[in-house]
Design brief:
Blueprint: E1 4-8, H1 16-28, E2 32-37, H2 42-47, E3 51-54, H3 79-91, H4 95-108, E4 113-117, H5 121-130, E5 134-138, H6 161-176, H7 183-192, H8 201-205, E6 210-213, E7 230-232, E8 256-260, H9 269-279, E9 285-289, E10 305-308, H10 313-317, E11 320-325, H11 329-337, E12 342-344, H12 351-360, E13 364-366, H13 373-385, H14 387-403, H15 408-417
Parallel strand pairs: 1-2, 1-4, 2-3, 4-5, 5-6, 6-7, 8-9, 8-11, 9-10, 11-12, 12-13
Helix pairs in contact: 4-5, 4-7, 9-13
């Protein structure tokens, strides 16, 4: 029999399509799926087959519109500033609001399982308070502390020897410290939900019954050891509903370069123009997708580069020779799944870490986010001329195919949903 599944999502750019891919798969298997989400996502939720439900007190945002973006991390001047905005405007600051809305929905219509994007600690708190099995979704490389790997954030290479391990211990402590400023707001949300306080925000992330990592295990470092509730369930490779139909590609038989930066606003117009200028100096065809946050008419491009707002990357990658990207997890993993090597220009967020892992796998190269057209052109030429990155991307493609042969995310959620009948999973105030 179908189960009742409640999702909790926010307008988090590239984190949305993987979650909605799971919504679609659960609906196809006959489950009822409701999705608490920002109103800007309701069209995408409905397209995936879910029933959209609006947040009432939690923040409402739209990452395709700079003025409506809740975090506005593109205004931050440092990585720590970016992190503080996420902590204070999504993870901890409004945790009580997310918890209140989620509990209200669970009271009104009980669910067999709650599935929440992992940064929504308020929603995860509500599931814990309601006694509902909870799965958190990590839509990038696992970002929390784990033995056997550098801390997430600085984009360190894996440690070599005692000095490297000392570096990781020191940096790991420094990376955790900024979370402390969010602890009072999180514990206030827990108290309002009838729960005991936690000692740290990082501890709160680990309280979900399952943490489902929607990233290839093969992309992470092989020696890394994870907490017992973590499951690598493979990436979601569906294109978002807004990607539309495949455009007519530039004519000719020159190698095709796919360009895609963030689907949310990151002040990426100038990097897009520098990439376009770089491709204009090379014997390639370029397909440059601006995403919803940038008007393609504002991008100056040479004649061998077609600029469009959106295109489904899946079918385009079957013809591509290289992807030039900000190293957002979705674009990077789709490229690797197609065996296409990458040139990475990280702009912020988790992108330096993703780029580092791509380089460590041998499947691409990284240049500075503000690299000149000449530097970008050299990097693209190097990837096209050297067969090693394509061979490494091919190895990653085989690993990803094996990881995604079965839908492990759906299996994990169905297993959790089987624990508690919906009639018993309502919140008792």
């Amino acid at each position: 029999m179908g189960k009742k599944v409640l999702f909790a999502l926010w307008a988090g750019g590239g984190a949305v399509p993987p979650a909605l891919s799971i919504v679609r798969a659960l609906r196809e298997r006959g489950h009822g799926v409701r999705v608490l989400a920002d109103r800007s996502l309701h069209g995408e939720v409905a397209a995936a087959g879910g029933e959209p439900v609006a947040w009432t007190t939690a923040p409402q945002g739209d990452t395709s519109d700079p003025d409506a973006d809740v975090i506005k991390d593109f205004e931050a001047r440092t990585p720590l500033g970016e992190f503080a905005r996420l902590r204070d405007r999504i993870v901890c600051g409004p945790a009580a609001d997310y918890a209140r809305d989620t509990l209200a929905e669970l009271r009104a219509r009980p669910a067999d399982v709650l599935v929440a994007e992992h940064v929504l600690l308020g929603a995860l708190t509500a599931g814990e308070a309601a006694g509902v099995p909870v799965a958190s979704l990590v839509t990038t490389i696992y970002p929390l502390p784990a033995e056997g790997a550098p801390p997430f954030g600085p984009a360190f290479a894996p440690a070599a020897g005692p000095l490297g391990r000392a570096r990781d211990r020191i940096a790991g402590g420094l990376m955790v410290k900024p979370w402390a400023k969010g602890l009072p707001a999180l514990n206030a949300a827990r108290a309002a939900s009838g729960l005991a306080p936690v000692d740290s925000v990082v501890d709160a992330f680990g309280r979900a019954d399952r943490c489902l990592v929607l990233s290839p295990r093969a992309l992470d470092y092989p020696g890394r050891r994870f907490p017992g509730n973590v499951r690598h369930v493979g990436p979601r490779l569906d294109d978002p509903a807004w990607a539309g139909d495949e455009p007519e590609l530039p004519p000719g038989d020159a190698p095709l370069a796919l360009v895609g930066l963030s689907s949310s606003f990151m002040n990426q117009r100038r990097p897009l123009e520098r990439i376009a200028a770089a491709l204009g100096t090379l014997p390639v065809r370029g397909l440059l997708t601006t995403g919803p946050a940038v008007d393609p008419r504002t991008i100056r491009a040479p004649g061998n580069v077609l600029v469009v707002k959106a295109a489904p990357h899946g079918p385009v990658l079957r013809r591509a020779a290289v992807t030039i990207t900000h190293a957002g997890h979705g674009t990077a993993v789709k490229s690797l799944a197609a065996g296409v090597p990458l040139v990475c220009l990280p702009q912020g967020r988790d992108q330096r870490e993703v780029a580092r892992h791509v380089e460590h796998a041998g499947a691409g190269v990284t240049v500075r986010g503000n690299a000149s057209p000449r530097a970008i052109a050299r990097a693209v030429g190097r990837v096209l001329d050297d067969p090693a990155p394509r061979r490494a991307a091919g190895r990653m493609a085989a690993a990803i195919a094996a990881e995604t042969a079965a839908d492990a995310a759906v299996a994990e959620i169905e297993a959790l949903a089987g624990r508690t009948p919906a009639s018993a999973a309502g919140y008792a105030p």
